[in-house]
Amino acid sequence: MSQAAHNDQLRDEFNRWAEAGRGEGMEEDHLPITLPVLDLIALGIGPDGHVASLFPGATTLDAGDEAVCLGVHNSPKPPPERITLSLAVLRVARRCLLLATGAGKADAIAAALAEPTHHVPASLLVRERLTVIVDDAASPPPGLG
Q1: Prediction pTM value
Q2: Domain limits of the chain?
Q3: pLDDT, tens digit, for every residue of 30-41?
Q4: Which of 33, 97, 99, 122 has the fewest CB atoms lying closer than 10 Å?
């Protein structure tokens, strides 16, 4: 099954679940969702500063505080169709582990530890619950972080 067909199947299953779960007094297009609070999320970081499938400047970064899982279309890296946990889920996790290796990730790690910006999604993670582990090559310059 292709990734696109699989994503369509997931969307159809979710829509069936949503339809079955609608009760009195609920808005037509909204189900109340409680974000899952994960104990630990282990993430890598892309050279562009993306984490999960949350890419720089993507609209998925503004999905809101109730979004759990999002479809990603026309991803800048293969596969073009994918799903991802939302930024809201990453931000409420009890701990987030960010791993990076290689010189190609050094600039991304430096940017992730700088001021938060939608241009570097990793920078939007909650610092107080974030642990960053890098090898020597991916280490940011001294004095940063």
Answers
A1: 0.76
A2: 1-31, 33-138
A3: 555 688 999 999
A4: 33
